[in-house]
Amino acid sequence: MQNVMITGASRGIGLEFVRQYDADGWRIFACCRTPGQADELNDIAASSNGRVTVHQLDVDQDASVAALKAELGDVPLDVLLNNAGIMGQRNAARGGIDYDAWGEAMVTNVMGPMRMVEAFADNVAASSQKKLITISSRMGSIGETKADNSIVYRSSKAAVNMVMKIVANDLGSQGVIATSFHPGWVRTDMGGSAADISAEESAGGIRHVIAGLSAADNGGFRNYDGEIIQW
Ligand SMILES: NC(=O)c1ccc[n+]([C@@H]2O[C@H](COP(=O)([O-])OP(=O)(O)OC[C@H]3O[C@@H](n4cnc5c(N)ncnc54)[C@H](OP(=O)(O)O)[C@@H]3O)[C@@H](O)[C@H]2O)c1
After folding, report:
1. What's the CA-to-centroid distance between 173 and ligand 1, angstroms?
2. Which residues contact 34 (CB under 8 A, 6 or more apart)?
3. Closest ligand 1 atom, CA of 11?
4. Which mutation among 190, 200, 206 tests ligand 1's pocket best, with the greatest number of atoms within 8 A of CB?
5. pLDDT digits (tens, 9 = 90+) for 181-194
6. Residue 49 forms beta bridges with which residues?
7. What is 3-223's CATH number, 1.10.1660.10, 3.40.50.2000, 3.40.50.720, 3.60.21.10?
């Protein structure tokens, strides 16, 4: 059986990853900030015969990540999916920057994935697939950006892409495949109802691409449909 750990599994794309890996029979460590309120996630876990377990995790908090590591020990993780993320401040532009919100975005979107890497890199390296995935955003592509706003979210996703590149260089010799993904513009609480694609299509596409990743893909940045995105 393959193991996957998913952060931000309470709703949106993260919850959809849980649904789809569950349907494929994976062992899932589904992490969320407030398990007591994650009704849909708890329902999936309840009907999984213990294959899907729900774990409290706030990626902003050292103690929360450390507690999860202590709980899970050396369990191999074929796929670690850093999915949890926040917008911080929508449409942040010169003249109206909320610096507290910017700080929160950096803590969750940049330091959160790194905290998870520090705690669980050995678990990924000990697995058979060794895939370390962060859900970033095309909005973090410096090469593509023509925008003059959304500096809070864009800069956090550009920064986490650099984190992932360094992690790829660091862990590649252990066979780890570290990849950033753009999930598309997805109809979730974050993406809104006017977005292009469903969470089902996004998670399905990313899962398909993850399944085909090989060592040559370490350190890449992909769209949910597999397209390579420029940094
Ligand atoms: N939707 C899009 O169009 C889009 C586009 C590009 C990239 N993305 C990225 O895709 C990922 C998932 O987005 P989404 O659309 O599914 O967003 P969402 O519907 O807003 O869900 C965000 C998830 O992240 C969790 N989360 C937030 N802060 C957390 C923290 N400190 N610790 C643990 N969990 C935390 C939330 O938990 P709670 O329920 O506890 O709040 C929730 O489960 C994010 O990284 C986002 O930046 C989304």
Report:
1. 30
2. 10, 56
3. 43
4. 190
5. 999 999 999 999 99
6. none
7. 3.40.50.720
